[in-house]
Amino acid sequence: MSRSAGMLKRVTQRILGESGGRAVPGQPIATTHPQLLAAGEVTPGITAAEYSQRRATLASLMPANSFAVIPGAGAQYMVGLIPHPFRQDADFRYLTGVLQKNLIAVFESSCRGGKFTLFVPDEDLRREAWEAAPISCRAAMELFGADNAHPISQFGVRMQHMVATASSVLLDVDRNKGQIPRETPALRKAMDLGQTRPLETLMHRMRWEKSAAEVDLMQASASATAAAMKECIQLSRPSVQEAQLAAVFEYRCKMAGAQRNSFPSVVAGGADACVIHYLRNDKALLDGQLLLMDAGCERHGYASDVTRCWPVNGRFSSEQAAVYQAMRQLLSARPYSAGAA
């Protein structure tokens, strides 16, 4: 940092009543966003204690004398410097609750102390002027439960020591397009020596079973999707645009607290309903058509997915009703169960 930049930062902190070395969370916390987070929660609905228990469970499942590396998601860009809305890697979020880009988490097995280390972005005043300050090392430990925290510029050096003292490294090499192992010599060497194992198997095993808090979040996501789809049914009539219903769905979900759609909505009138991933949504609905809508929302990390089919004009023809009833009978006779193909 230049002398002038450092002076400017100190003056700004003094004006704002801030001091150096502060715990910068870089995202909502209970004290700054009480309308979003209850006391003790790291993300809406999930407490610091639950995140800590998840990490302890992972440590107990890992091979002896091993550690795991999970990079957080990076920014994705539409064009130039214009970013897409950020979405955190699901496993990274599940274990840390940190919803920011360009981080790396390291988790050690129980026999290595079960420690959680977070590598955070180095200080960059120019970036902070555009994007605000990201999580600090102090916040990583005080607010997010990390045992240790370091600037991400130290990751490569610290990996050299950890790889040298570990029996194995749990790492999904394709995560985040493989950038971390590709750019970290110690991890590349561990891969060449056959010292790495996939992490995703353990993560899937852990995430398959949901806590009561997770079930509540899943229910809230499903309820938001159901209410939004009911409104789309009520608004359907000849000449309404498929894109208009897609827009109504997204709006209603976001008004109910969702951050984004689970996936691009399928709003398909007539024969387009036979196209599994019909994403154009660029036609007007016609009298006599059936409309198929496949949509869902993601609310605080938990996604819903609902498909329904209804008559555009509000009335089934005799043929449409026969097919609809046959499908209902099939689903009633053989209800969907988790794990079914």
The tally of strands reads 16
* Shape, per Cα inertia axes: elongated
How big a fraction of the residues is strand?
15-25%
Distance between the termini: 56 Å
User: Biggest sheet, open or closed, and with what strands and sense?
Assistant: 6 strands, mixed
Structural class designation: alpha+beta
Tell me the Rg in angstroms. Answer: 24 Å
Mean pLDDT, all residues: 91
The tally of helices reads 12
Share of helix, binned: 25-40%
Give helix and strand order, one letter per element, not per position. HEEHEEEHEEHHEHEHHEHHHEEEEEEH
Low-pLDDT regions: 10-20
Strand order of the largest sheet: 8-7-6-3-9-10
Walk me through this protein's architecture.
This protein is 39% helix and 17% strand. With 341 residues, it is an alpha+beta fold. The relative contact order is 0.10. The chain is elongated. The strands form 5 sheets. Strands 8-7-6-3-9-10 form a 6-stranded mixed beta sheet, with helices on both faces. Strands 11-14-15 form a 3-stranded antiparallel beta sheet. Strands 12-13-16 form a 3-stranded antiparallel beta sheet, covered by helices on one side. Mean pLDDT is 91; it is low at 10-20. Helix 6 packs parallel to helix 8 (185-192) and helix 10 (212-235) packs antiparallel against helix 11 (242-255). The termini are far apart. The longest helix is centred in the middle third of the chain and has 24 residues, at 212-235.
